[in-house]
Amino acid sequence: MLQKQLQLGESRIAVTQAALKRDVRASYYRLWYLEEKRQLYLRLDSLYSGLAEAAAVRVRAGESNGLDQVAASARVEEVRMQGRQLENDLAIEQQTLMRLLNTTEAYLPERKPLEKMNLNPVALLSPGHPILSQQERQIEVAEASASLQRMARLPEFSGRVFSQRLYGLDQPVTGFSFTVAVPIAGKSFKKGTEAARLESALQQHLLLLETQDLQTAIRQSFEVLAKSEEALRYYEKRPGWNRQTKSSKLQRWLTGWARSAFRSCRSSWPKPSAFAKTGSTP
Questions:
Q1: Phi, psi for residue 111 in degrees, rounded to 5
Q2: In this structure, are residues 134 and 11 in contact, taking their beta carbons and an 8 Å threshold?
Q3: CA 51 to CA 258: how far, in whole Å?
């Protein structure tokens, strides 16, 4: 019985360790994702700021009524507000990771793109999960308790050997006794045995329930993962999906648009000969 309880305590430690590893890994990947998102919004801030400046040049050139500039400026402010929110989310996630690691040092993820994780459904559905192992130890403890309840109804035999050399006798053994204790069977023994049997059956049903819940949760997680991978494949198949290529293309487009707007604005300026004829200075 004590050995089974010791194994149950060890399985609980294993469950705690596995949960801690899971939480640390999840927190780190969330931190990595938020950092990648923050870098994206920094690039968006730069791009939309250039777009707002180009729109302002078009307004000064008379090519636009100002709506483009208002929309671009509003978009810049929105992107900056979302960037500040991401800074707060990063700080919150850093606090979570610090709590899990029991440290006062803040961590940041590696400076490289977020990597895709390759998961194996067969390995996740295989036996040996810490939660299932813990429940199996619970069943063993319940069965050991039921066995003790059944043994309590059996008679108990005991014996002893005594010596009286303390009183001057030469013989090392001067007597022995043998005792038989027969328990009085009653309703308490029967109810105790029935309760132990029901506890063992309950723990077995809980093992089946936890196995089904775990398998269902794993399958649902893989369905969510498949949905996300489908969206990722869609964007990867589109031309120019690489973020560096896309960013450089947009920057070149903004630069060309700004130059075109500047040339249009410059062409609307009066020529120096006009000032010479009127005798005025620019």
A1: -85, 70
A2: yes
A3: 8
